[in-house]
Each structure stands twice: as C-alpha cells, then as structure tokens.
Amino acid sequence: MMTAKKYVNAVGRRLKCTKEKREEIKQQLLKDISTATNGGAALESVIQRMGSADAVADKFNRKFSESEIKKYKKNRRIRILCESAAVIILLSVLMYQMTPKTAEIGSSGLFEEQAVEEASKEIIEAFRTGDLEILHKWSSEDMQEVMTSEKLKEAKNQMSDEYGEWISFGEPDMFEMKKKGETYAMAQIAASYEKNSITYMIAFDQDMKIAGFYMK
Question: How far is 192 from 60, CA to CA, in rounded Å?
C-alpha cells in the first residue's frame, strides 16, 4: 500500500540536489499531502493529482539553481559509495574498506556503457521475478553461492512486502571504481514498480560478473 512517506521518499530518491535541499523538499511535500488529506481528500487522489514520483522530481530538478546542481554533481560519486544500504548482499568484493578512485564509465577500456546498463536492467528484473538462472548467469562463483532463493526472498521482503509490476527505470548513474588494483563497473539505477520504488547498485568485475549487489 502506498503511503505518504513512501511516495515522498520515492520523490526524494530522484532529486538531483544536496541532502539538505532534498530533506527540505520532502518535508514540504509531506506537509502539502497532510493539508490535503486533513481537508477530506483521499490520499490516493492527492498522490494522483500530484503526479508520479518521476514527474514530481523532474519538476524540481528543472528548477534547481546552477550552484545547487554543481554541488550535487561534485558529491554524487562519493555519496553513492557512502550511502548505507538497507539491504546488502555482499560477496567477494569489500567495497567500503577505503575510499576508492573513480572514473568515467568506459575510460579504462574494460567496460562498455551500454553493455553495463543493459546487464544491470536484466539483473534487476531477474531479481524481482526470482529468476535464479539469469542471476547465476551474471554472477561470479562467490555470488552464486549467495544468490539463493531463500536469501533473495529475505532481501526483497526487507525492502518491501509488495512490488507489483515494473513501470520504468530511472536514468542510470554509472562509473568505474578502482580498488586494490582491480577495476569495477558500478551502476546505480532506480526502478519504479506499481507499489514501490527501489534503487539498486550493482558492481561488475572485469569479466562482467556481479561482484556486489545492493538495494536501498
């Protein structure tokens, strides 16, 4: 069931601004929703009138000042790496032991941007449907040992009781990360479902196998 908090959080995940600005907008949205529902409007109709999380966030993103956008871009990569995940399925690569070096996707010549994006979307959909065959196809041997039906179900349930049908993917954020002499492709993609919205972060090793999988 969609709640005001879930809806506002979904909008917040799509905002391209600083943390302070994001919290300010979220609080304002919650206040607007509360005012409308206290006036007798049904929450469902209020959310429908406001628009999808993607549409609302897009309106805000187009209005942010140039300085706000610069701050966001400057901190984006390190913020992605440092955000704590609500669920972590961690495998052979310990991503957070130290601050890694990052670079543009494809700069090493080891990865192709389109291939990383397509693989990420296939993995995300396989995770939603519980398709272990697809997940194991993309997984390293260590990952295959962790990607069991039981653990996938547990991870999904910790994020949400219900997902519903897939609606759309957000714009992917991809880059390369060098860690202890190894280079990884990192992809962060938000996926919108009928009843929820989840942001996924996938790490690929040089063989394009999943080295890490995170959700928030």
Answer: 18
